[in-house]
Amino acid sequence: MLITFIRLVHDKEDDGSSICNPRKCPKMSAGANHSFTWLNSRLQPVEIPAYEYFSLVQRYISGKIDDGAIFPTDPSGVSYADNPAFCTPVPDQSGQQDWVGKRSGFPPNFFETCQTIFRQMFRVYAHLYWSHFEDLFSLDLEKSANSCFSHFILTATTLNLLKKSDLEPMQPLIDLWAALGTFPQGSRAYETANIEVGQLLVQKAGLPQSS
After folding, report:
1. How many angstroms separate the CA atoms of 190 and 199, rounded?
2. I need a surface site. Which of 57, 100, 103, 211 has the fewest CB within 10 A?
3. What is the pLDDT of residues 152-193, one digit of tens each?
4. Which ranges of 45-166 would DSSP assign to H, the alpha helix?
5. Helix, strand, or coil here: 114?
6. How far apart are CA 155 and CA 133, in angstroms?
7. Helix or strand run (H / E) with residue 108
């Protein structure tokens, strides 16, 4: 669904224009206090228009997902669970290096790659909300955007794919959703929120409090 939102603001119309363009969004930002850079060929951070950043993010994520060394698809890969009800427990391998996905053939940097993918996706969401939410609203897509982003945050926080510092550009919305009950109590998304701030935002917006 995120790709759909990107295309709506990124793809060119019949007149050659796009909602997100270098004139309107000269840099990849999320409000006045957060901007994001991209590493160039010399691994130097550079500011680029959001329009170009979107293209690079799509290319980066597609390249990683299509890379069989990172996301193996060979059915001969080993995959099993340590549940004694279904299989023989795996012998203790103390002292050997372990990582997320090792038993299914994923590489040592698999988790870090997933974190980077989610961080880039988050930045796209953040820019869409800060710079193009009115555009999404005019297209009657704000409910779809909220649904997709709230589920994205729930997934990312549950799996530790985003750090609390990564969430800063959208923290007020996370606080608001937690206060409204969008995030269930006990979830990591709820735990990352400042409920007092969220309740204050609810009051200012005149929204009903979560029971």
Report:
1. 13
2. 211
3. 999 999 999 999 999 999 999 999 999 999 999 999 999 999
4. 50-65, 110-138, 142-158
5. helix
6. 22
7. none
pLDDT of residue 82: 55
Check residue 172 and give its pLDDT. 97
Can you tell me the distance from the alpha carbon of 10 to that of 64, in angstroms, rounded to the nearest whole number? 21
Rounded to an integer, the average pLDDT of 136-152 is: 92
* String of DSSP letters for 14-56: TTS--SS-TTT-SS-BSSSS-B--EE-TTS-EE---HHHHHHH
Q: Which two tokens stand for residue 111?
A: 């988790």
pLDDT at position 114, please?
A: 95
Residue at token pair 């609203």 = 137
Q: Considering Cα of 184, then 190, then 196, then 199, what sign does the dihedral take?
A: negative
Contact 180, 150 (CB under 8 A): no
Distant-in-sequence contacts of 153-156, Cβ < 8 A, 24+ apart = 153/177, 153/183, 153/189, 154/183, 154/187, 154/189, 156/118, 156/122
Q: What is the pLDDT of residues 83-118, one digit of tens each?
A: 555 455 555 555 578 888 888 888 999 999 999 999
- By three-state DSSP, how is residue 60 classified? helix
